Prior knowledge:
Shape: globular
Largest sheet: 3 strands, antiparallel
Number of domains: 2
CATH superfamily of the largest domain: Iron/manganese superoxide dismutase, C-terminal domain
Number of strands: 3
Strand order of the largest sheet: 2-1-3
Order of helices and strands: HHHHHEEEHHH
CATH class of the largest domain: Alpha Beta
Bound molecules: fe (ii) ion
CATH topology of the largest domain: minor pseudopilin epsh fold
Strand content: 5-15%
CATH architecture of the largest domain: 3-Layer(bab) Sandwich
Radius of gyration: 17 Å
Oligomer: single chain
Number of helices: 8
Amino acid sequence: MNDHYPFVLTGLPYGTGALEPYLDAETVRIHHDRHLKSYVENLNRALKDYPQYHCKSLEWLLTHTGSLPPAIREAVKNNGGGVYNHNLYFSMMAPPGQEPGESTLRAVEKSFGSAERFRQEMKKAGLSRFGSGWAWLAACPSGQLKIVTTANQDTLLCTCLTPLLPLDVWEHAYYLKYLNQRGDYIDAWFHIINWKDVESRLGRFLL
Ligand SMILES: [Fe+2]
């Protein structure tokens, strides 16, 4: 995507049905083609009359919301965060069958004790986020992995954490298939993690 205004909707790296049976094609299609598209459009709408920000990257905008005009601050934070988080989310899912590589597995075991324990902690975090938001596997500067949550479309950009793996726990991410059973969605999501990308994001901490 353009990393400046006008932002564009990034295509999915797989077909809408590629994550079946864990995430159905209709959920993926609506989530991407409607929800993410709205965030992109609303972000552009907010920035339209502010040409001084048209050359700024999404990361810059999200890390400088405090210096933006009050009239667009919230819109940029919420919609820009929506674009940023969802681009990560969609890119970090993959058709079923991927397993974590050896170095990722080692890092997960070092921080959580076991892969199973990681899954338990991630699920607990996703379930505990009241309302809408995200659960994240993230890396501290020391390389220690941790699981955190953010509300709404807040990102990890203004923290010292490097996001490794985002889990969208907004109802729009799962309601069509899983209704109000967020835990079932999270259990299914573990089958469609793009572990290759996790490993590449984790890479610099493994040196
Ligand atoms: Fe979402």
